[in-house]
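Q: What would this complex look like in 3D?
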Amino acid sequence: MTEQAAALKANFFKFNIRDMGTLIGLVIIFAVFAALSPVFLTGPNLINIMQQSAINAIVALGMTLVIISAGIDLSVGPVAALSAVVCASMMVAGVPVPVALLGALLVGALYGVFNGVLIAYCGLQPFIVTLGGLSLCRALALIYTGGNPIFGIPQGFRSFINGSLMGIPTPIIIAGLIALTLWIVLNKTPLGEYIFAIGGNEEAARVCGVPVAKTKIAVYVISGVLAAIAALILVGRLGAADPTLGNLWEMNAIAAAAIGGASLMGGKGSIFGTILGAVILGTLINGFTLLNIQSFYQLLATGIIIIVAMLVDRATRGK
Amino acid sequence: MTTERLSMQGMVKKYGVVTVVDGVDFKVLPGEVHALAGENGAGKSTLLNMLCGVTTATSGSIYIDGVKAEIRGPADARDLGIAMIHQELQNIPELTVFQNMFLGNPTTAGGVFVDKKHEAQRAREILAELDPDIDPWAKIKTLKVSQQQIVEIARALLCNAKIIAMDEPTSSLTPSEFERLAQLIRSLSAKGVSIIYVSHKMDEIFQVCDRITVMRDGHYIGCVNIKDSTEDSIVTMMVGRKIEKIKHRSYLTDEVMLEVRNLGRSGAVKPVSFKVHRGEVLGISGLVGSGRTELFRLIAGLDRPTGLTVAKHTRMSREISGLDQPAMGEVLVKGESIRLYSVKDAIAHGIGLVPEDRKLEGILKSRSININMAMPAMERYTSIGWIKRGYLRSVAYQIMKELNLRPLDVDRAIGTLSGGNQQKVIIGRWLASGTEIFLFDEPTRGIDVGAKSEIYAVIEELARQGKAVLVISSEMPEIIRISDRVMVMRDGEMVAELTGDDINEAMIAQYAIGQAKAVHEGV
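A: Here is my prediction, written as structure tokens for the whole assembly.
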């Protein structure tokens, strides 16, 4: 039994090597900006970075699950916009705030079901289905609002989003809670293992009796709900719901997940890595702003970092 | 004496320490139709791959028309006039007939633009002799398989092929289409083209071939004139070695574990009924493509048995499947009927499939051994939605120990293990799921010799523990060694059931190849 005990000693601190790489990347970027700007490495600025990264991180976490399942969700931005305008119009109409918030989440979830059913049961390709959703939801949001932003978001909701708990802004806390929940889902529950299984080898998963279709629907629902949550944070901060909000969210989310080690082939990805990926992207924006460099260069740096991350990925992963 | 069109001398191909082809001579005359035969794994495909430049020979030399040929790649082979028609046709369905014929070798006008008119004209000229009904402008996907095959032959002729190798060319043809192919082969041979004809089907070989070369276990066995031989003598050459009886221990009982009634799928498996008992090892023999894997997939709930849908689709599906009665297939585990086409229900009733293609259908490559084992029965290792990792890992550890899987590291990614060890994990997966009926599809494919006997030991142990085991295998010695009873399938049909001394290579081969008269003995 001692042999067994030794062999089964849980390795709690077995750290994901890929996450380590992402972390090192982040540290290098931090070091560069810290050297160039005295303000960069101060408490308020770091909080600022986190706050700026929170929205993308939330969307990217949902995207990570989708990507691990070997799918993709291009519809997150417009789904976010649709949820935002629906929620805002409900609030403006005097519906109690919690009900309006639930309404937003419901919109995200329902659109996730729509995506998931088309992909899992109709056998359509995720890229195309969600590309369709990208136009469809944007159009619905624009039609619903006539193209105008909805103002008059209740003050209570705004101050909740713009408030903080023990010095930590609400959006960061929300993103943290979501990350924790998804980490548990991915690492501690059968659903997480099913997501890895269908992304890694769908045929083998089928032979094992994994509920492939239900699992696929679940990841798109999670993605849709998280897009809606991200939209609510933005609405709270801006005090308005713009039907054009969420432009290019899908791209930023994919970038964060990919930098964090998610493989578009499926079967690979990590919650911690995606968070780091989102923070790296947020840091770039923040750092370039501090240094007063044109945003064109920030775009350039983002592109370079994505490609370098992939090259490092390829080189370290071996064959 | 004429110069041989093709002479392969002392061909050897080694993969690491494994010798797949060992000193084989193969000679083909101009205009000859030469059969190449042998059991699965005899080395036929490897020999042809060396000829076509797909793999390079470890040693040996090839002469074409008496001139030594250096074949370093497929392009060399093509330039030497060697063409291969693969079993799985290699064409691009969305392109037209002539585009497929000129693939990789387009005719251009002025060196820039593809001269479609000219290409189509050339294609029409060549097709006129083969099958004038094929329109060069038709898309490949609109043609029948037999016509697609003719396009491949036309493509070979376009490259002035002198030697055309056909690998199981009739595997997807109907009898009348075969007649047409036979005519075509004769007319090609009359024009001096040499044909290498790889097939398992004796009647075809006797109908179209002049000579036959037989290989077994990578060795050259002999080359005889078809005129001077009988089907019997050739089967004996193919099967070869005297039947050695390895003592097989039986744990067979009377208790029926699995019963299959009228289970079938149109185009793959004709409705079949049989029983498997506790402690029994049932071997399922037959050639590749005889419907064995498809039968397993039906039992495991992965495919929908047709007959289920007969009521809905009525006449058409009944015609396709050839069913005269609307047979609802049935699978019973210990007398209880299970839901068909439901993997979940099959697993819940203790049915587990160890698939043939480990990589594609078996392993979750980058996941750990313990997760790979838990996958089918996650609920056993979960309480209130939470995976009981400690319990799971200790179960995985015990199973690894039982299966003699080293090193005893339950967290290791399965993809880093050897083929034999991966197979053990897949077996362990079903042990961890409480499986009592094991379906093994080619359990030792791609596994080295040492690990093979370990897999046999595991199978015997399963039988000893009172499980029911079904094993598909193309390797005769394997199936003879492990089975209590052998069922032979041919063309989707169960053609024989052998027990006791009838389980021998000659009997199995006769039924599998279709030489003996089909007798379905039933249960």
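A: To summarize the key features: The first strand of chain A starts at residue 150 and ends at 151. Strands of chain A lie at 150-151, 164-165, 168-169, 240-241.
Q: Very helpful, thank you.
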